[in-house]
């Protein structure tokens, strides 16, 4: 499978795993040095992110659009827009950028940055 297809699948699984609180998938696909910038401006490491993901996701119908994948050698950036339903039933949206690195022959997520509108 080529890198673009692999990254498309990883991106889809990342979003699915957020919606389903799939800590196991994240545990297998985040680097040990992973960092996540949260919408509130806080920065969490891998352990903090896994703890954050574990409870049931409060948003529903998480979807992605305008996905742009840029492969820069052994690093790839994935930019996309998200849409979702907030706990109060209102519409929500945001953007994210995930940074992936090829390590040990496989793509692994090393950083994420999330914003919400």
Key structural traits:
117 residues, alpha+beta, six-stranded mixed β-sheet, 3 helices, 6 strands, globular
Structural overview:
The longest helix is centred in the N-terminal third of the chain and has 18 residues, at 3-20. The mean pLDDT is 97. The chain is 28% helix and 50% strand. Strands 2-1-6-5-4-3 form a 6-stranded mixed beta sheet. A hairpin with a 2-residue loop joins strand 5 and strand 6. By secondary structure, the chain is of the alpha+beta class. It has helices spanning 3-20, 23-29, 46-53, and strands at 30-37, 43-45, 60-72, 75-85, 91-103, 106-116. It has one domain: Nuclear Transport Factor 2, Chain: A, CATH 3.10.450.
Give a quick rundown of the structure.
The chain has helices at 3-20, 23-29, 46-53, and strands at 30-37, 43-45, 60-72, 75-85, 91-103, 106-116. By secondary structure, the protein is α+β, with helices and mostly antiparallel strands.
Instruction: Give the oligomeric state of the chains in this entry, treating copies of one chain as homo and distinct chains as hetero.
Output: single chain
Order of helices and strands: HHEEHEEEE
Number of discrete helical segments: 3
Query: Over the alpha carbons, how many angstroms does the gyration radius reach?
Result: 14 Å
Tell me what the CATH architecture is: Roll
Mean pLDDT score, rounded? Answer: 97
Describe the main β-sheet briefly: 6 strands, mixed
Shape label? globular
Strand adjacency order, main sheet: 2-1-6-5-4-3
CATH class identity: Alpha Beta
Which blocks of ≥5 consecutive residues have pLDDT under 50? none
